[in-house]
Amino acid sequence: MIEETTPTLGSYLRSRRAAVDADDLGLATYGRRRVPGLRREELADLAGVSVNYLTRLEQGAAGNPSDEVLSALARALRLSEVERLHLLELAHPSGERAAPIDRDGHGFTGVRQLVDAMDTPAVVLSRNQDVLAWNRLGNAVLAPHVPHEDVHDPPPNKVRQTFLDPQVRSLYVDWEHEAELAVASLRWVAAQFPDDEALRRLLGELVLDRDFARLWALQAVELCTSGLKQFRHPWVGRIDLCYQMLHLPESDGARMIAFSAAPGSPDDDALTLLRHRVAD
Question: What is the pTM of this model?
């Protein structure tokens, strides 16, 4: 099962080729297509590569494709910039030797102190979305039923909670959207750190969940650097919070997510109520 969760260049190319609508590209069609998407010959022609070479790429037997070839395929497939970077990362992983951040190390103490001092919900996530640190507001927003001290051993995992914790699932107004983002973000990380054994174990566990397996098979990728999260919170009711991801400088994939509400809005009032609840 773990091998099936490992992202590969060949499987990603096949999935993107299947996702393209030939009509959108203005390609002539002759008869009914047996499978969705582009034929291999059509993609090879659009990208300016041989069918034989594309076949070897999709089978994982082409060795070391150049960035020029990969970019040509990305253009032909009409990939977004994030998808293009993901394609390049699958071919040439850049972060596979980066060690995970040490949450018990001296260098992480300052990060933890910063999070505790913030007057807005804040959470530090590992590249695998383990909770490395959170302040009481961040804890209250993302998992109000989990004691603040439970961040330590083992740490909660945000993706695992999203899929396997019914109380977390019920927090989100649009759980399907949040689940799609969680999986797409994890797939991005899996391409950057293909040798991460902890990530392999996490994926091997999560893929047993039907919803996760369904979304993982779509092979969507997202960076999820900013946006809006909509909560149906058990303590303060409906609250919509903007979020911003800030990557830590160690380049190991760890990042901080901080939440805020528009000043003077009902969401800001709800956040103030949450502050009082946490303080009490």
Answer: 0.86
